[in-house]
Amino acid sequence: MQKYTHLVVGATAGAIVAVLLGWTSGIGAQFAAVADQLARAGSLNTVLSATNQQLPPIMAGAAFGILPDLDQLLKRQRIGHRSGLFHSILTLIWLPALIGLVAPTLFAVSAAGIFSHWFIDSLNPTGVRTLPYILPRKKESLKEFIWKHERDLRIATIHYDNHWLNLLLCGICVAIIWLLSGAMPAWNIVPLPF
Amino acid sequence: MVSFIEILIYFTTIAVATLMAVIGDRLGLSKIPASKVVLTRDSPVTDIKGIGEATAKILHRNKIKTVDDLINANSKELGKAKGLTVKQVKKWQKYALKAMMED
């Protein structure tokens, strides 16, 4: 999928985690603080200080939502794009665990953000990797699994160039964030006349 | 300190992904008919019409795994490999290029 889709879906994952962890009341305020500081100075340090050295869950979710595409930067090295290292269930295990060790507060948000990336990419024709040895028909080495891409799973054939579907997905996600942040009285939109 | 809910979220993502992988495999979701496949450079060679599992194995032995690898391969050299012909390779390359242009 497009990078902007990964960012928005990742942000939604971050927002959902924030709700599950009871951080909901902070989302709007943190967003406002970030926007204010970005408008004034624009440096990451001032943004972080505005949010008491904590990255807002939506921003963290968006960052982790795009993190697995790091392999595109490394494509010319040994790692192929969508290889097992960055686009598999193995990634969902090792990457959040590593992030959790370095920054425990980002543990759950990273797990959700990275999962969102894997899920969204499984909607592409190219598909994603799953787990080595989980599917009995796979007879490849762990090395092959880690460095090379092969389609283990795809649940749809939405081409990444299909901007309409990408934008539709983003729209749905923005609506979810809006609902979660309490910006809209979700269940009282049209008051009944009787 | 990581809370119980955070650990639960972590394991839930892994469990859901694993379940998707197993169900997807049972339903054959990774095997969509070639006629319905939209080719990209990263697509596996099996997405090309006329390349099945057996031919894919031969191509894999010759380091051809993706459509991109096949397009960039020297058809004369690849055609010399056991089980392949130059004519076949050129046909696949032509098909792949055409399918990507249509996309």
Structural class of chain A: mainly alpha
Assembly type: heterodimer
Topology pattern of chain B, helix = H, strand = E: HHHHH
What do the pLDDT scores of chain B average to? 82
Biggest beta sheet summary of chain B:
none
Walk me through the structure.
Chain A is mainly alpha-helical. Chain A has helices spanning 3-20, 24-40, 44-50, 57-66, 89-102, 107-121, 142-147, 163-180. The radius of gyration of chain A is 19 Å and the shape is globular. Chain B has 103 residues and is an all-alpha fold. Helices cover 57% and strands 0% of the residues of chain B. Chain B has helices at residues 4-26, 53-61, 67-72, 75-78, 86-102. The A-B interface holds A 17, 20-21, 81-82, 89, 92-93, 96-97, 100, 104, 107-108, 111-112, 114-115, 118-119, 122, 125-127, 130-131, 134-135, 137, 148-155, 157, 159-161 and B 1-3, 5-6, 9-10, 13-14, 16-18, 20-22, 24-25, 29-30, 32, 36-40, 42-44, 47, 65-66, 103.
From the structure above, extract its key features:
heterodimer; A: 194 residues; 8 helices; globular; disordered C terminus; B: 103 residues; mainly alpha; 57% helix
